[in-house]
Amino acid sequence: MTKHLVDIDDVVLGAARAELGTATLKDTVNQALERVASGSGERLDKALDTLAKADFERREDAWR
């Protein structure tokens, strides 16, 4: 684990603590980062599913 010195908006931190139910700055930041990181795979899967279902015109016609 690495230590970082960052400026954090107190209002946003308070909102994140309330949403996550965390008590410490460290727990709030770590849980928020974990949520974002774990959700990225789900968003990618959803985007790929949407793309796979798309009805594309023929490629030759798309450039006209």
Helix content: 55-70%
One letter per element, helices H and strands E, the order comes to HHH
Radius of gyration: 20 Å
- Overall geometric form: elongated
**Tally the helices: what do you get?**
3
Give the uncertain stretches in residue-range form: none
SS strand fraction: under 5%
Q: Structural class, from helix and strand content? A: mainly alpha
Q: Can you count the beta strands?
A: 0
Distance between the termini: 54 Å
Mean pLDDT: 85
Sheet bearing the most strands, described? Answer: none
Structural features, described:
With 64 residues, the protein is an all-alpha fold. The chain has a domain at 17-53. Helices cover 69% and strands 0% of the residues. It contains three helices and no strands. It has helices at residues 10-20, 25-53, 59-62. The radius of gyration is 20 Å and the shape is elongated.
Keywords:
3 helices, 69% helix, 64 residues, mainly alpha, single chain
How is this fold's topology laid out?
Layout: H1 10-20, H2 25-53, H3 59-62
Helix pairs in contact: 1-2
Task: Describe, in short, the structure shown.
With 64 residues, this protein is an all-alpha fold.
